Amino acid sequence: MMPARFTLYSRDYCHLCHDMINALESAQQIRSFEFKVVDVDASPELEARFGERVPLLMDGEREVFHYHFDEALLDDALQHREQDHPAKMA
Question: Which domains are delineated in the chain?
Answer without folding.
Answer: 4-84 (3.40.30.10)
